[in-house]
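Hi V.,

Quick status before I head out on leave. The structure for the redesign project is tokenized and pasted below; the design run finished overnight.
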């Protein structure tokens, strides 16, 4: 397993090996790409926005989805890391692994552990995705193995029933 540096990420996108829709040059990092917020939901308040800003109250759970749709081949997976600028403000997040063969937007759970409101804006860079090559291609990619969230768009909390 090897983490892809910036130039390999850009080369893989340029050559159509993988894709990041709505690619933003300001999001590329030395070893990843910062995914931006498209949608914010605070379940306890019923609030859901796709434009503007929202204040996340203290001790409150929220969800975000990404602007970017990520498309990975069957030999590249990814790790997700909350940007440290959010950690320093008091946000923690539930993140996972992006399986080889995944296609779609990504949904994250966040929690404001601080005692103050934290403002989030649509298009803020929120999570870094770090791509890594598998030692060999997956025998059965995410789409065929489970594909529970394949093709998701926006905040998706339940598996998609109609698998692609």
């Amino acid at each position: 397993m090897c983490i892809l540096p910036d130039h390999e990420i850009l080369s893989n996108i340029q050559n159509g090996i993988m894709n990041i829709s709505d690619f933003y040059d300001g999001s590329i990092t030395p070893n990843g790409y910062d995914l931006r917020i498209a949608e914010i939901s605070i379940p306890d308040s019923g609030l859901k926005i796709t434009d503007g800003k929202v204040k996340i109250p203290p001790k409150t759970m929220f969800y975000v989805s990404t602007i970017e749709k990520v498309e990975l081949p069957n030999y590249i997976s990814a790790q997700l890391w909350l940007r440290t600028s959010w950690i320093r403000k008091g946000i923690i997040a539930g993140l996972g692994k992006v399986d080889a063969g995944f296609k779609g937007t990504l949904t994250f759970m966040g929690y404001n552990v601080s005692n103050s409101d934290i403002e989030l804006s649509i298009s803020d860079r929120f999570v870094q995705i770090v791509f890594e090559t598998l030692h060999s291609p997956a025998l059965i990619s995410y789409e065929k193995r489970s594909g529970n969230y394949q093709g998701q768009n926006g905040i998706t909390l339940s598996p998609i029933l109609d698998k692609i």
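Above is the designed sequence. The mean pLDDT is 93.

G. will cover questions while I'm gone.

Best,
W.
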